[in-house]
Design a protein that fits this description.
191 residues, mainly alpha
Length: 191
C-alpha cells in the first residue's frame, strides 16, 4: 500500500510517471485502501477527466474503498449530477463489491431517486445484482420484499438466482469457523 501511495503521489504530480500497465493496479490499491484524502483526490481526477474511459474508471474506483463511510459517500454521490448518468450504476456496483448489504439498503431506501436512473429493462436486475456478495439474511429478506414490490413475477429470474447465491454465501460463511479450526489443528503439518 505504501508503494502504491508513493506512486499515486507521483502520478498526481505528473501522470506520465505511471505507465498504463501499472496505473490500473496502483489506482485500484489506492482506491480500496483509500482514506478521505485519497478518495477526494480520485474524485477530483474523475471530475476533471475529459477522456470518457478514464472518467468511467475513476468513478468506478470511487466505489471501491473498504471504508464504509467512503462507500456511503460514493453511493450518495451517485445520486447527484456530479457523475454522468451513464456511470452512476457503475459506482453502486463497485460499492457492492465490498459493501453489498449497505448498497442494497441504500438503493431500496432511495428507490424513488434511483429508479429514474435505471433503464426500464434493467430494473429486474439492478438491485438484485448488487446483493450477490451478501451473506446476510436481512439483505435477502429486503431483496425479496423489493422484488415483490418492484419486479414483475415474469422478470424475477435474476432475483431468484441472486437469492440462491446469497443463501449459498450464508451457508459458506457459517462454515468458516470450522475451516479456521481445521487449519489451526493442522498448522504444523506439511504435505
Amino acid at each position: 500500500r505504501s508503494e502504491a501511495l508513493r506512486r499515486f503521489g507521483d502520478f498526481l504530480l505528473n501522470p506520465q510517471h505511471l505507465s498504463s500497465s501499472v496505473r490500473a493496479n496502483v489506482l485500484m490499491v489506492v482506491a480500496i485502501g483509500a482514506e478521505p484524502k485519497e478518495w477526494e483526490q480520485l474524485r477530483q481526477l474523475a471530475k476533471s477527466s475529459v477522456n470518457p474511459l478514464e472518467k468511467q474508471d475513476y468513478y468506478h474506483l470511487l466505489g471501491l474503498p473498504q471504508d464504509s463511510a467512503l462507500a456511503q459517500r460514493a453511493l450518495a454521490m451517485a445520486l447527484t449530477n456530479e457523475a454522468p448518468q451513464t456511470l452512476r450504476a457503475s459506482i453502486w456496483d463497485a460499492v457492492a463489491e465490498q459493501h453489498a448489504d449497505e448498497t442494497v439498503q441504500f438503493l431500496i431506501a432511495n428507490w424513488s431517486r434511483v429508479e429514474p436512473l435505471v433503464d426500464i429493462s434493467s430494473v429486474p436486475r439492478s438491485v438484485p445484482q448488487v446483493a450477490s456478495n451478501s451473506a446476510n439474511l436481512a439483505t435477502l429478506e429486503a431483496l425479496n420484499g423489493f422484488g415483490m414490490a418492484h419486479i414483475p413475477t415474469s422478470a424475477r429470474s435474476t432475483l431468484h438466482k441472486v437469492a440462491a447465491q446469497v443463501r449459498d454465501n450464508i451457508r459458506i460463511h457459517g462454515r468458516l469457523g470450522e475451516v479456521d479450526r481445521w487449519l489451526k489443528s493442522h498448522a504444523g503439518i506439511t504435505v
